[in-house]
Amino acid sequence: MISYEIEMKKSEGTILSITIPTNAPFLLKQVYQKVFPQVNKELDYWQERAKKIPNKELRTQALASIRSKKFHCQGGSVYSLLAGEQWKEAIRFIVAYQTISDYLDNLCDRSTSLDPEDFRMLHQSMEDALSPNVKLKNYYQYREEQEDADYLTDLVKTCQQIVSRISNYKNIQGLMIQLEALYSDLQVHKHVCHEERIPRLEKWFSTYQSKWPMLSWYEFSACTGSTLGIFCMTSYALAGEMTDQLAEVIFESYFPYLQGLHIMLDYFIDQQEDAEEGDLNFCSYYQNEEELERRLIFFVEQTNNQVKKLPDAYFHEMIQHGLVGLYLADPKVKKMKQAYSTVKKLIKASGRKSQFFHWNIKLYNRLAGRY
Q: 262 φ, ψ to 5°?
């Protein structure tokens, strides 16, 4: 188990105590005072790079992904608190990897192609980012747009450079690529032309159904759509605390339930928006609101059970509580009058700490002008 305090010298010569938070107020203090400012620095760098992309379409999607999905990097970077004195390197990796993910999601969802071969090649960059010894490729090989001033390859190289410094990286690389492969498969299948999406997703799930029979195809798809397991493994490994056994425990604790809860909440708050825009939403496949509510609570309960198996279990429990609080505090929820009962029950099922995060994040959103 990782030690709870690590002494770190700040650049000005004073000592900063790096502590894995064990209570919600201290976690939020670390997040607001340390993590978010560093995330902003990293995103500012990539935003400036994105502005210099020559191709208009690639530039538009790169900038839009940073502007509209910044909170993905902020949320993921909470895991840097597991990385000890390497927390800045953890944030560098998390921001770069999540920026690849968000950029590619825009290219597949909002751009000019419906070609699964194109989507597969684009997402090869996410596997290469976790493979420090592989050569970079032309990830735009199957699309018209090409010139990005090395934006995507430099994001990949940033990730490669960081994981290459992890002495025991072999202990997690295979499992991280498993999570990445599931993520990339999802992105390919869900972004093709509308009439092919559901048949492809159902066929894909049929190859995994015997292993996770308690899930529907749309729940399994949601579980594959999160990068949290990758960020958790990387952060522990940067702290020098990774073993084969810990990597397995993280994988089993995060997939399917915590990752599934993460993405189901994301889809839950996007239901109205996705319906208006004709986008795929996995929450829409439940028979009614009652079934959706029951299954979301099931994911909360299963996540509660699984994270108890992890070292620093209290931290991972706060991640779960924070996810519930974060998503249900989103301004979109105010427009979901039919889901008000579900929101209350989810917060109650998740626990008192979720309510603390919920109200704190709502206050943060108000101060940030999101309401």
A: -55, -55
